[in-house]
Design brief:
Layout lengths: L3 E4 L5 H12 L3 E6 L9 E4 L5 H15 L4 E4 L14 H29 L2 E6 L3 H4 L5 H21 L4 E8 L5 H4 L3 H10 L8 H11 L11 E4 L8
Parallel strand pairs: 1-2, 1-4, 2-3, 4-5, 5-6, 6-7
Helix pairs in contact: 1-8, 2-3, 3-5
Length: 234
């Protein structure tokens, strides 16, 4: 049965791959973006997830066009990397507000209609950095680790209503963001990965789509690494 899917930050990279995967499965797909919309395959809605009013307007637009959001993929996020002693409080707060609180805002907006329909899927896109830490990313790692506690707490609240809440934790994935890494830094990361290569956005998209499907209805509160073994044991 086609479902209504909303992917935040779905205009590029991992988010775009997730949106395309759901579209290929016949779902009704909407994405949010902040500056550059994707091509016309999806319903694209401008939305900054740090602004509650924009979130409400985005959901209202999706509901009017495609129906209530049944699958929410909370992927929108930013980085502002600095060593701890050079990181300003505003940089810490901005990343937490976008990545973690933004995900909370979107889930809170989606939940009432999921509860009414007694079915729903929420997937938070975290990061291996949230499980093992990453130098220069105290703010980013904290935001991604917070998703795990948020998802598991929410999963306990809504499990009896047919709603699952899960987390995917990508490692080094080939995107515009990782393309900007220096050759030395990228080589260092690759040396830590048992699989010996970076992942593709489609690797993450496949995992998200499975968690959002009917056959994963007994999986909730899980953290699924998509990292080639980098975070093994976490």
């Amino acid at each position: 049965m086609p479902r209504t899917v909303l992917v935040t930050g779905g205009n590029r990279g991992i988010g775009l791959a997730i949106a395309e995967e759901f579209l290929g499965r016949g779902d009704r797909v909407a994405v949010t973006y902040r500056s550059e919309p994707p091509d016309g395959k999806f319903l694209a809605v401008r939305c900054d997830v740090s602004d509650p009013e924009q979130i409400d307007a985005a959901f209202a637009a999706v509901e009017a066009e495609l129906g209530p959001v049944e699958i929410l993929v909370s992927n929108a996020g930013i980085t502002e990397d600095r060593p701890m002693l050079r990181m300003q409080e505003e940089q810490f707060s901005r990343v937490i507000d976008t990545n973690l609180t933004g995900g909370w805002r979107c889930a809170r907006r989606a939940l009432p209609k999921m509860l009414r329909g007694r079915w729903g899927r929420i997937v938070f896109v975290s990061s291996v950095a949230g499980l093992r830490g990453n130098q220069g990313q105290v703010n980013y790692a904290a935001s991604k680790a917070g998703m795990v506690g948020m998802a598991r707490s929410l999963a306990r609240e809504v499990a009896t209503s047919g709603i699952t809440v899960n987390v995917v934790a990508p490692g080094l994935i080939e995107t515009d963001m990782t393309a900007a890494l220096s050759g030395t830094r990228k080589s260092t990361h690759l040396a830590e990965i048992p699989a010996g290569r970076a992942g593709r956005p489609e690797d993450v998209a496949d995992t998200v789509a499975w968690l959002a499907g009917e056959r994963a209805g007994y999986v909730t509160g899980a953290v699924v690494p998509v990292d080639g073994g980098l975070g093994m044991g976490h």
